[in-house]
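Holo prediction — adenosine-5'-diphosphate.
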Amino acid sequence: MNGHQLLAHTLKSLGVTHVFSLSGSPIKETLPACSQLGIRVIGVRHQQAAVSMALAHNFVSGRLTAAVILSAGPAVTNAATGILVAKDNCWPLLVLGGKTSSTNPARPGTFQMLDGATLFHPLTKWAAEVNSTDKLVEYVTRGYHLAMTGQPGPVYLDVPARVLNDSPTVIEISDPEPFFIPKPDCTTLEKIAEILIQAQRPAIILGKGIRWSEPYKELRTLIETYRIPFITSPMGRGLLPDDHPLCSNAARDFLQQQADTILVLGARLNWTFRFATQFAHDVNLIHVDIAKEELSRHRPNSILIQGEIRQVLQELLPVLRQHGTMSGCLREREEWHARLQEMGAKYLQHREDLANCSGSPMSPYRLMKEIREFLPRDSICIFDGRNTMAAAQEVLPSYEPVSRFTAGSNGCMGVGIPFGIGAKVSAPHRMVMVICGDMAFGVCAMEMETAVRHNIPIIVVVANNDGPCAGQDFRTCYSPGHESATKYLARIPYEKIMEAFGGHAESADRPEHVQPALKRAAESGKPACLNVYVDPQTPFHNYLG
Ligand code: ADP
């Protein structure tokens, strides 16, 4: 067995079912070795897309089931943005980069020579070079476990050509280092139970970190037994359904300003939650996170718990039960719910007015309404862009865990189509729809060829508003007669790209054409692209998480 085969066997034994890659030296033989073991190899058009696909695959499966294998030099640097996306979203990722082996290390100028391990050190949980074939299993196994252990994140390994081509003499393996997750102590649990029972205006914030331990049952028990309204982060949508009676996303600003107690689970209080600046100054803040450094110190009354969400909830629920009912503040809680309902209803009315607009050109909000009427309840939607993402976030609901992707914690435009492909490969039975603005679409549009070639039937909807500056007054940015730096050519027929690849392709101008076109796209069974011309003048509106 050589290093290529050993690497494939190791990935397989760890539970990797998919590899996203763009073939080249020195990994050309690694990919068939994976494929021979039943690992599905998806060949992409750009390495950044390979990483995004693996990230979405892992988020949908809830484990590290997809890895990325890259060739050398520029192929490795092309993956850097994807690795940053993994880091900034706290998502598990294993990237194996081929490294050219110099025959004479003292002689510079070897083709595609790059020290990837040093380059990725600041962006990863661990970046290292596998220095011998004997160590290959140990490094890959350690990297795999590290990516998933504690706060999930990216791991990068340089795998030199000679390590892949050699055969091992002795395979070295050591057990993965144990990771200690602290448990909350009894006094802290008692204190939290007391605060939650006595709170008059309690609230819960849910983020996408919930994904990794799936404490849905425990969350429901907590929220429903103690009638605690909740809001979510953008990708926390659907972890509990949007139509849950206690979901208060429609009144999120009011909730954050008025709550007297806020329990934060699986979210960081970063820009997404405006660094908690909306919270009342005397709020009781309870923050649970597996990573100590993420615990917010925004309020003097904070209770900060480094712990695993599911474990913490499992320990908290019996303590809450012992504390009995919250009969003392029932009236205040009912008032709190009524106020949230009232504020939410106002917002929803405003949103529906926008979504019902029948003007021409079509507003992006109206496009989202047409998509909403069409989508099955368990569909996975990916929103990519600026105005388009904002309109989609507001109008489209999520009902199931892992049914929503956005451009993520660092707003990386262009992830939409790759996320869609990764998600569809991971959940082939669910409809996957990518809704992108025309700028975001352009970043990875060639990956539609990947979808056609591998028969991955995603539906890509382009909200085509002639460029990324829709709704802005160009005169404020440029002098008269300027070259068009931010506004694209008008009415580009993007669907023709999909047509060229052999997928299903259509365009639409009118709201009443959208649903029939989506139906034909779904029935075609092929990857599809629907190019919808929307109003470039629709202003950027509110942002509903
Ligand atoms: P969002 O963007 O949805 O607000 P973030 O990515 O900001 O979510 O935050 C997710 C947080 O969840 C991270 O700080 C991460 O450490 C935390 N996390 C991930 N898995 C767990 C877990 N099993 N238990 C506790 N915290 C977790």
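READOUT: Residues 264 and 403 are 21 Å apart (CA to CA).
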